[in-house]
Amino acid sequence: MRRAGLALVTLVVVVALGAPWLAPNPPDRSFAQSLYAPPTIVHVFDGGPRAPFIYQQRLVSRLERRFEADVSRPVALRWFTGGRLVSVADDEGPLLLLGADALGRDIFARLLYGARASLTLAVVATFAAIAIGALIGGIAGYAGGLIDETLSRLTEFVLVLPTMYVALALRAALPLVLPPGTVFVMLAAIFALLGWPIVARGVRAIVASERERDYVAAGHALGAGPWRMLVRHLLPSTIGYVAVQATLLLPAFILAEATLSYVGLGFPDTVPTWGTMLQDAANVSLIGNAPWMLAPAAAIFIVVLGVNLAVQGRGRAPVQLEL
Q: By residue range, what is the domain housing residue 281?
């Protein structure tokens, strides 16, 4: 099961990195005649086997959002042209592998590009939370006394806060309209500030136990300073614990970004992320008529499932999504 989980996560990362090559259309391109268009079906049989092709979809009723395939004009797929794996000519398309959204944009392309933004934010926030938590936990466990007591109480205070409500409150207190880069930094900072106590508590316990060992006393006897002992010898002993916590925080931060963007407090709609795409899906009055709008929810499920399988395969507890 661990291999299956790692394979799922690796697949998502590879697809995200290859988004410019795999996406048949730009993520921000709008096809005026393809609003809520269903997924384009790729055919390999037309009176006999032939090269993959599609039928151009024509809008029959805008009110009913009904499309019909023009079976009289098979459209051949173009491979490895224009820097893309597969596409069709502009006057014969569009190729919409997962359908189109309310603005006629390619959901498949936005899903791939959205993976870049959502995963990058989660990774950055995870590393920041680990760095802050490891530093604070290491100092508390090594110093002991009043410093340990103060930092431990601070950690416990943040831990008991309802993290999602605090994240919503912090984001709502800031300007709603911000550049995408500012939103990225701001969300990463909020997630890191709410995620570090989980790391700090475990690191503090490990360092407090390790500082009583003989090699620490030997290091002090040889003239090693506190920072050298902490950074070079004590913190490395927490790598295993920190690695497990990283697998817990990563999917939690992905869901947190999706939640904030879903309620309109995350990235603007112009930036494709899994959260902004779910917000678009929430605006669909009859989601049963356009189920392809829920593609980002399936992508989030795959990532969370992959991480859970990878962690369970190592014999550890499954991911507990706290954000």
A: 107-313
